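[Meeting: bench + compute handoff]

Bench side (C.D.) handed over the final construct sequence. Compute side (W.E.) agreed to return the predicted structure before the next meeting so the bench team could plan truncations. Sequence as handed over:
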Amino acid sequence: MAQFLVAIHHPDDYDPFLAEDEAMSHDIDALNDEMKAAGVRIFVGGLQPAGRAMSLRAQPTGEVLITDGPYLETKEHMGGFWVLEAANLDEALAWGRKAAIACRAPVEVRPFF
């Protein structure tokens, strides 16, 4: 079985307290329960907003520069993710479809090496 990252992407100004209603929370909880029952879910985690990130960059001098904010300057950032164990990409994509519906957000599915 291969492992896959199923990542949820939110707009930069996403506020879960404003965007996530009871129905959405229920749908995400139901999806988590379904993943657990199917034995595919290895780990799940929600992330704080991108503005809370810290970026570290190695410098030619050997120092590490730490700056506030995400590494990438984009309009969307990863807001949460699942690590799943699935038989193949098609199965992982099927879970990704369910995640996109439950989270009402774009989803990226990517295999691990």
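W.E. noted at the follow-up: The CA atoms of residues 54 and 64 lie 12 Å apart. C.D. will use this when planning the next construct.
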